[in-house]
Fold this protein.
Amino acid sequence: MSDSVIVSVKNLTKIYETEGAPRVTALNGVSINISLGEFVAVMGPSGSGKSTFMNIVGLLDQATSGEYWLEGKNVSRLNADERADLRCQRLGFIFQAYNLLARTSAIENVELPMLYARVGAVERRRAAQAALEQMGVGDQAQKLPNQLSGGQQQRIAIARALVNSPSLVLADEPTGALDSKNSHDVMQRFRALNDERGLTVLLVTHDPSMALYAKRIVRFEDGQVISDAPTTGVSA
Ligand code: ADP
Ligand code: MG
């Protein structure tokens, strides 16, 4: 495997077995490599396995079978604590619903990943403020999430995802709750981070006009990859 491969999954399957319900094969043999500096959009109909795939790549969940190598390390069979450590050190997450802590100011939300990584208080504050400024919300640092618009909250969530310098950022429908203007703003920010800082981004979207900001589109159907191709679309 080349040094520049960040994510390599081989023949991943995920089967959900719930008492009293039919078993669901959410992933059925997915193999993908993602290299440093890529910007990949995952598309596909509802129920096709996109979130299941993201949760496994994001170390929030484990596959039923298959292999997952992250930055050259086999992480297929880590326990929950080991996954949490690695997630905290190497990955950044952005969710559709922002998932900011409600009674916590914007800047404290951004400081959280650094708190877990035991960064000192002064450096935490400095880096969090810098990340907020980079996302254009530096002047919102003291506000609570419910005092901010959806677009502002998502930009704070992006600042939080970036603040530990992750090797990979994962975003599951990051524009799903935003209006068109804010959606384009968020996607332009991902694209600029990818173009200018070489940030590796893996995102799920069902909106083709958002997927065009990515440089590669992987399509899922029934738990399988049905196409994987570069975009010819937008420039940032
Ligand atoms: P997508 O994100 O593409 O909409 P998901 O990965 O969420 O798809 O779901 C894929 C399939 O797995 C669906 O049939 C869904 O109902 C099922 N599924 C997802 N999560 C669970 C779960 N925790 N328990 C049982 N079935 C699940
Ligand atoms: Mg989903």
The CA atoms of residues 135 and 155 lie 6 Å apart. The mean pLDDT is 94.
